Amino acid sequence: MNKITVDQLGFYYGAKRALTDVAINVPDRKITALIGPSGCGKSTFLRCLNRMNDTIAGTRVVGKVLLDDVDIYAPGADVVALRRRVGMIFQRPNPFPQSIFANVAFGPTVLGMARGGELADIVEASLRSAHLWDEVKDNLRGDALGLSLGQQQRLCIARGIAVKPEVILMDEPCSALDPIATLKVEDLMRELAQDYAIVIVTHNMQQAARVSDLTAMMMLTEDRKSGTIIEIDATPVIFSRPQDQRTEDYVTGRYG
């Protein structure tokens, strides 16, 4: 079942077109990887999926992005509700300068989801889901910025899932992490995919091959002025027998 359907999506920064006719189906409870050379619009496209680009003046979207068959760009769409349903994990960990507990409790508190004992239960469940509880349970009031980078990223994941999203977007979530921390986050992604649709941007071909179920290859259009998806398939197919020569050149290291 598709969680997100994108059809003929175009995106503009002012007069500059950044994306052209992007089309993709994102299945529920699977990991979809977006790969491709720098500058082809992967992160821009990812931010289109929860309207984070709305915060940039002068941007414009054409085409459709459907979440459970409802157009998220339709007039009157509730953007706050959308961003609760479609969370974002960024390239560098960005914990708030607060305690570990306060970081995870922030969303549920603001949204009025729980308080008191219920809030503590949500914090614990989220930290457990992020494979972090055993490492921080004795220091929940400690400064989140005192954690290692890998722990901070898992804390940000815990903070994201605390508000019970349906989709998790990840923009190169391991690029700032060491190999051991990277493998922990990858293991976490595979576990989270049992409950969430996940879309990840990565430049690490090995990571895409290890964690994703589907892989979409993005490239610049022929005029090299905007990005688009040129091929999407099951990850083993993309990495062993892609249909587009440009995809094969990229995944084998001959290009990009």
What is this structure's SSE topology?
Blueprint: E1 2-13, E2 16-27, E3 31-35, H1 42-48, E4 59-67, E5 70-71, H2 79-85, E6 86-89, H3 100-110, H4 117-129, H5 133-136, H6 149-161, E7 167-171, H7 179-192, E8 197-201, H8 205-211, E9 214-220, E10 227-234, H9 235-240, H10 245-251
Parallel strand pairs: 3-8, 3-9, 6-7, 7-8
Antiparallel strand pairs: 1-2, 1-4, 4-5, 9-10
Would you kindly provide a brief summary of this structure?
This protein is an alpha/beta fold. It is built from ten helices and ten strands.
3D shape = globular
What's the total number of strands?
10
Counting structural domains, the number is: 1
Helix fraction, binned, reads 25-40%
CATH topology: Rossmann fold
Q: How far is the first residue's CA from the last residue's CA? A: 33 Å
What is the gyration radius calculated from CA atoms?
Answer: 18 Å
Give the rounded overall mean pLDDT. 95
Profile the largest sheet: 6 strands, mixed
Per CATH, the architecture is 3-Layer(aba) Sandwich
Strand order within the widest beta sheet: 6-7-8-3-9-10
Number of continuous helical runs: 10
Helical/strand content category? alpha/beta
- CATH C-level class is Alpha Beta
